[in-house]
Structures are given as C-alpha cells and as structure tokens.
Design brief:
- The complex is a heterodimer.
- By secondary structure, chain A is mostly beta strands.
- Chain B contains one helix and eleven strands.
- The longest helix of chain B is centred in the C-terminal third of the chain and has 4 residues.
- The relative contact order of chain B is 0.33.
- The chains are: A mainly beta, B mainly beta.
- At the A-B interface, β5, β6, β10 and β11 of A face β5, β9, α1 and β10 of B.
Chain lengths: 115, 115
C-alpha cells in the first residue's frame, strides 16, 4: 500500500522568508511518481510538479525548488522569498506506475504568508 | 485546451435529499476519477473509470453513492440520500493514459453542504 505523510499541518512565515514543506512517502514499487499540488482558497488543485522515481535530480522553477531523496523517501518543496500569493494548502501525492495506479495524497500543509 | 469542467460549483441540500454532480473531462482523456476531499484532508479516491468501465470503485459507498460514465466521456456522481457527513468537495480528474506518466488534471470541484 502506498502512503504519503506531510507531518507539518500549518506553517506561517513573513513575506520574503524561505520556507520548506516536507513530504515523506511509502511504496513497495520501484517505479512511481511524486507530485506537488497547490490548492488556493478558491479550491482548485493546481499542478506544480511531477517527478518519476528514477530521476533524483533536484529541480528549480523560479522561486520553487524540489529536493527528491530516495534514500530517505522524501520529496521536499522549498519556496524561496515567499510572497502573499503563495498562501495556500500544498499537497504532496504519490502514484505508482501502471494503468491501475491511483493518486494518493497527503493531508496537506496550510501555508500562510504574512505581509 | 479546455480543462476538466465540473458543475455545479456549489450545492446546498437538506439531508435525505438526492444530489448529482457532473464532470466533463479533457477531450481524449480515457481515464476519469472522482475524488472526495473532506475539510482539512487530502482528496481520496472514490471511483476510477477507464472509458465507460468502472475499474476501481472499492472506496465508493455503494449503499448511497452511484456513478456512471456513459459513452466514456462525461460522468455523473450521485448521492441518494445525502447525509450530513457527505459535506465535502467532490473533485473530478482525468488522465490521458497511465496517470503517473501523464499526470492528472483536476476540475475546480463541487462543494457540497448538507444541512
């Protein structure tokens, strides 16, 4: 069975601070995919990144960066120089490979960025 | 390209009443998912369709929930009768193929309130 743990529930930072959102996952598969989604107050789930289990390279996209470490089964997300618009709930999710796979979400982290 | 379209956006009903949600996936996406997101939680899978066939409905409370995907395109999720505990956001998602490889696209969701 697959599982995603987001131990942090709420994080509050002041604008321009850096913040890291933690994600730990469990799976028995050797091939799997990891995702991060953003859910702003409007409610839609906004796709941020997908990473497959064979690609451990860190990725940077603007102020966002992701650190994937298979050794610790973690896929952490860092926002550099946070902005008020980053305030949202952030979900980490896991999908095993294959046609029968499904997306399993963590419980989410509520990020509040104060001006 | 139009995204996943869901309606209605909000719905308030009294308990014991029926309710239905509609989803139109991205054109060409054979796989369609219904997820339920309770307050403060991550989305959880209710049912997955491959074309018109429900291939995973193990988490669907079949005593009151039903779903259909006629002609393998649009889908409807129904609750009859609704209970107070059904208050949640119901999300529809679609995928082109193996979802881990192609990713998932979510609709904006239907926020159901049962009073």
């Amino acid at each position: 069975a697959q599982k995603v743990t987001q131990a942090q529930t709420e994080i509050s930072v002041v604008e321009k601070e850096d913040v890291t959102l933690d994600c730990v996952y469990e799976t028995r598969d050797t091939t799997y995919y990891l995702f991060w989604y953003k859910q702003p107050p409007s409610g839609e789930l906004v796709f941020l990144i997908r990473r497959n289990s064979f690609d451990e390279q860190n990725e940077i996209s603007g102020r966002y960066s992701w650190n994937f470490q298979k050794s610790t089964s973690s896929f952490n997300f860092t926002i550099t120089a946070s902005q008020v618009v980053d305030s949202a709930v952030y979900f980490c999710a896991l999908s095993e490979a294959g046609a029968n796979s499904k997306l399993t979400f963590g419980k989410g982290i509520t990020l509040s960025v104060r001006p | 390209e139009a995204g996943v379209v869901q309606s209605p956006r909000y719905k308030i009903i009294e308990k014991k009443q029926p309710v239905a949600f509609w989803c139109n996936p991205i054109s060409g996406h054979n796989t369609l998912y219904w997820y339920r997101q309770n307050l403060g939680q991550g989305p959880e899978l209710l049912i997955r369709y491959e074309n018109e066939e429900a291939v995973d409905d193990s988490q669907l409370p079949k005593d009151r929930f039903s779903a259909e995907r006629l002609k393998g395109v649009d889908s409807t999720l129904k609750i009859q009768p609704a209970e107070l505990g059904d208050s949640a956001v119901y999300l529809c998602a679609s995928s082109q193929g193996a979802p881990g490889a192609y990713g998932y696209t979510f609709g904006s969701g239907t926020r159901l309130t049962v009073v």
